[in-house]
Amino acid sequence: MDVRTCLRLIRRHWWIVLVTLMVAVGSAALITVRTPPRYVASVTFFVTTPSQGVTDAYQGGLFLQQRVKSYADLLRSDRLAQSVVAETQVGLTADDVQRRLSTSTETGTVLLRATVTDTDQTRAMRVTETLAAKFVELVQQVETPAEGRAAPIKIEVVSGPRVSSSPVSPQPTRNLIVGGLVGLLLGAALAVLRGLLDVRMRDAAGLQRVTGSPLLGEIPFEAGAKAAPLIVGDAATSARAEAVRKLRTNLRFVDVHEPARVIAVTSALQGEGKTTLSCNLAIALAEAGWRVLLVDADLRRPKVADYLGLDGGVGLTDVLVGDVQVGDVVQRWGDKSLLVLPSGSAPPNPSELLGSKAMADLLLALRESADIVVIDTAPLLAVTDGVVVAVQADGALLVTQQGRTSRTQVAAAARSLHSVSVRLLGCVLNMTKVAKADAYQYEAYRLATTGKTKVPADRAPAARHGESNGVDGVTDRTQELTRLRR
């Protein structure tokens, strides 16, 4: 995993970083507020030797440095702590004094520093003053020879005792900065971990890798698409409509040597937008002048007729059982060359009906009656209906909603198509998040071109091959098929 991937995951899960940062800073502030202030009192001793005794300066220096290390331990001795407690009477025990006391020496010198840290400024000063006096007395007692000669070591106080006028801890600025840095690092780590553990389909590259098919389109998410799913009216100039047109172009040129005329649109799960995409793709193809027939083959949860505002009571199911002719139930939608075959009444055996010879013969007739047939099918992982229809089509288009379907589910859907040798034309990542910069550029370009003159209606693209775009062509083909059956 490279740095770019980490940054992408952090950007995607920025809210984790923000929450972690706020929690860390808040915790640091709470700790700072609840921590009692602490004051430091210090005193510095200078260790020397009289001119009598050690005469060699170098050896004398080494001797004193060794003695200073011993004096640091002597400062923390039980004997000295007990004498300080007995002298000060400040309510501390010998252990309390030892815990509050710290010593330090500077390498190569004969300076010894003692520091007392306490929440009470006055008590810290008093303990330090007593400690300095008692320590000098103790050293003199320890170092004085028994014969009464002068002591070879002399201790002098050269600095202090003094106490800090302001608390040395807590330090609010430092604590908040440290808390912020810890929060950022921890938040970034959690964001990357969250991204690595996320199994949902997030990007186009992952969708192509899992399905093993080209990406034909990315349909952006629009808040108003739920109320107005079709790319007509004001929605015809939206970024979503432009993405569908791009899908139309890519789909027509995905294989120029073997173009797909019967296309099954499916998805791994329900609710990924396959029906909306089927309707919009059919509308976009009809706008380009193609004779398009949209078939609702999702016999369990049909939605095409509802989206297009058509009557779906009679349709595909009734044609397959032989109750009506296809030409009698195909409906024209709008003023475009778009014909719609609704699902019809709900059958008790959808899979068997869609896999019957009647369905195969119907698709053969529809193939000859329209330039392109778009079939909306059932989700692949829910039921087998989608695979049954896709086998009879020229190819399938797999729709996946960004951030909803897992990679495992998409892979299972692709395998279900490949296992029966279905030609997977490509995949579509639906409801994608568009960067604000990209959305702004498209909107600016759209507004700049809205004032241009539109193409007159009489110069619009005509139907291909000079054939009629009406229902009559479908009716003639169906009657011919009926005669062949007899």
From TrEMBL:
Residues 261-402 form the AAA domain. Residues 453-486 are annotated as: Disordered. It is a multi-pass membrane protein. Belongs to the CpsC/CapA family. Belongs to the etk/wzc family. This is non-specific protein-tyrosine kinase. It is found in: Cell inner membrane. The keyword Zinc does not apply. Its main location: membrane.
